[in-house]
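**User:** Everyone, produce a chain:

**Assistant:**
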Amino acid sequence: MEGRIITGLDIGTTKVCAVICKEAPEGGVNVVGIGSSPSLGLRKGVVVNIDKTVESIQRALHEAATMAGVEVDSVFVGIAGDHIRSMNSKGMVGVSRDDHEITPADVERAINAAKALALPIDREIIHVIPQEFIVDDQDGIADPVGMSGVRLEVEVHIVTAAVTSAQNIVRSVQRAGYDVDEIILEPLASSLAVLDNDEQTLGVALVDLGGGTTDIAMFFDGHIRHTAVVALGGQHVTNDIAVGLRTPPDQAEEIKLRYGHCLADALERDEEIMVPGVGGRPSRKISRSVLVDIIAPRMEEILELAYQKMVESDILDLMSAGAVITGGGSLLPGVADLAERLWGMPVKVGLPRHLGGLTDTVRSPIYSTAVGLCLYGLVHHQGEGFASGNGNLWNDVLNSLKRFFRRFF
């Protein structure tokens, strides 16, 4: 197989997804392998059982590698969880050259000044993302290298994680037999797969509805402005169904996927559904509206908490393109309509794009993070000259990556 092979590994609370992509000769990427395995060792995005997490990683990666017909040595891994914290920071330095030309070294010094924060010993920085540069009070500069100036400032978005949580993810992958190329915040990875430049420029909120957490990333003027996490997700909906209907969790998940809905008034008819009993008890019939009455309050709670996180950003009014919902939770019928009612903005479900190969298989929101991890790895780890092939879609991806990850991600 020609072209580089990049693997994205999404270690989620309910599932582990692996996607293997290959660099296409004409530019862009082709999906060549997909693997998925139930995740039994995580809670709310955090590893709580390394042995079970290792088994899930091995199964997912083995399935993907077998499908692709390649050997996988290293992976780009997503990180999430309610331990994630973010903030915006500024750094300022004087231009070092006598002729006042700004060099890459000046940019690096400015970014180092911006990330010189007093962090607790139990936290570490995983991303420092430049938003814009300011040269002698002239703002809105994407790349100041080569410009003339006396003073260089930078505004950055800093994402931190709990040291132990990040270490346990790395340790789980290594014990599974793979190296970690890099750890990437999951909503950032998802944004690469489902958002386009126009949305990022106008202002858009990405809401990744995962199994254990709901991750939020807000973009404006082509830059990331805010990230946040809600410690609730689709698994909590499943647990509510299991308790409310007195049925095993695996049966509750199947019922949710088959009959679930977020809006009672959207049901075309109120049919009866069969609910398996617990511990040998007989199955029984219930009205589908009863199921929706269990699902709807929890989904409203999750979406309202996500909205509060958006309000805290102080840029909610700038989200002209509305919101994009992705992740496994977005498969629940009616979730976009419910979000529109609660948030008062246009909402759509985001699917992975900019791909070749097994596109029909990965064109689902459950693969948004894993696909985004591959897109990040393919471009960022070969430099900006990578995607020189044809096609505006891939150029959109490249330009987006340049904007967010220019050398200092």
